[in-house]
Amino acid sequence: MSAPGKAAAPDEQVVRQAIHWMVRLRGNGDAELQGACEHWRGLSADHELAWQRVQQLERELGVGLKAMPGASAVLDNARAKLRRRQALKLLSGAAVTGTALWLTRDITPWERLTANLATATGECRSLDLADGTRLQVNTDSAVDIRFGAQQRLLDLRRGEILVSGPAQGLPLRVRTDHGLLEARASRFVLRQGKGASRVSVLQGSVALSPASGLSRQMAEAGQSFDLSRTGILAVPQLDMEAGAWAEGLIVTRDMRLADFLAEVSRYRNGRLACAESIRDLRLSGVFRLDDTDKLLALLPRTLPVQLNYRTRWWVTVEARA
Fold first, then answer.
1. Confidence (pTM)
2. 83-95: buried (b, 16+ CB within 10 Å) or exposed (e) per residue?
């Protein structure tokens, strides 16, 4: 039970919506847009509370929110202005209090503030490293690059990467929260989750070792494994092509609708929900990621569903009426 007189925290998705309203309104005097924001705020007390807390965060941080292309990085100014030490101090709670800290944990992950290479929601980047390794970084990801005379090491701190390594030189090692990969002349996808990191080998072979150091597994082309801190588990069949995102695509094979929408939600801001009654519907196909609204609009053409847009950032897929 919350303390008397203390407002409960609004839902995290509502907070994200409030942030995006602030981004859209910054420097925009459009009366229609302002009216739409006021309408959203009036829909519930939770919306108004989130709006007030986001404003308080901006005041406490002392930095302005601005939109990157696609309005996907709501704290780009903060990222540009805060140095590593300032960012760590901020996120440890030394620089902000209460509401600001509560919001910052969600919308400014420390990995993206301090990593060598990071992407915002919906953004993918590619980089050719000094030794010829090709590194592709998926949405909402962060990686540190530690190359020198004695090692070639990538630290995946958040999200997903696709690595194409050269045959020459030292073996390439990739570290996650769950263990270590070692590869040479191979191409693989690595996605870090909460309990495990999934490895899908597209070409060549990759050696997997859990953080415990108790086992070692060679993953060959066409194989996928879940690497946890204590072990390695083979994934017999994927319902989605692991590396398709590097081409701007989601390619599915008999995938559950709920799982598909969870994947799409990685590439867009806001809330994307699925009604319980249709979660187990299946779909196969090739979908482009460059416009997730257009992607979602395809669903009613192939499945008995409809889209309910409460706002641009709050979409529910429901059974067709």
1. 0.68
2. eeeebeebbeeeb
